[in-house]
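Researcher: Excuse me, tokens okay?
***
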Amino acid sequence: MRSFAYDAPATPQEALQLVNGRADARYLGGGTNLVDLMRLGVERPARLVDVSGVLADSVESTPEGGVRIGAAVRNSELAADSRVRRHYPVLSQGLLAGASGQLRNMATVGGNLLQRTRCLYFQDISKPCNKREPGSGCPARDGINRDLAILGVSEHCIATHPSDMAVALAALNAVVCVMDHDGERRVPLDDFYRLPGDDPSRDTTLASGDLITAVELPAPSALTEHSAYRKARDRASYAFAVGAVAAAVDVQDGQVRDVRIALGAVAHKPWRARVAEEALRGRPATAAEFESAITRELEAAEPTRDNAFKIPLAARLTVAVLSGLAGVEREDER
């Protein structure tokens, strides 16, 4: 491992100053992803700025009735928070589906949002990768691509975002609070992440030096309280998703009053299934309607050689979660 400087600032403002204008500096939270990438040689920072001691590590109520989650809150603590478990069960379930207990005890909310793809070509510095070295190519398109993206892809990148927590937050319309030298701004999660386009090296819309301070959730409602997360993976123990869905649905008199659906392991970012959501609002809450809606969403999929199975997998996961939340019987259960 290369040598690097380590700083432990006393305030967020000091942290900003230490990173300002330095492309070779990185913020350090729990380190569960960044340190791994340093060991692999993917990340080579000359300076680490430890922000775990200067960011909020608590979950607080907001004046609007929602919650503000400090960026330094550990994943295990957030999953166990009574307000989260009661009012935002999809988030608690998503967190518990990710990583091992030991990693959840270390990983922070801010770091979880910024974790990088597990694409094999990105993690292997002996291989070309447009995300790691812009312009070098994307061998995954014709190589090992079973676990990679089918939605929002580009000719330059088919990597997937690995976070379970971020998929749950997408279904909750979460907002990311970001600090720079001008103060704090609020960025809707859907605007926080970006698709690869012609520059897959950028995972988010953050500017250099921006610091995540918190995540805010809206006031709980019948929608957020009727929410769930389901993940498909190659083994039951600690493993990244090959398909995942976070969903929330409000059913009144057998009709879908409102719904939110976010898919994981299918895109460069948590994928809000807005086509499916629009198709379901005001429609009967039936398994057939759920299947029709998610099928329309997945018509935009562009699978590669080995990952076309993700299309029926995502559809079945979505129908199963929505049917369970709405209390309706699926065709395959009859």
Q: What stands out?
A: The longest strand covers residues 243-252. The chain has a mean pLDDT of 96.
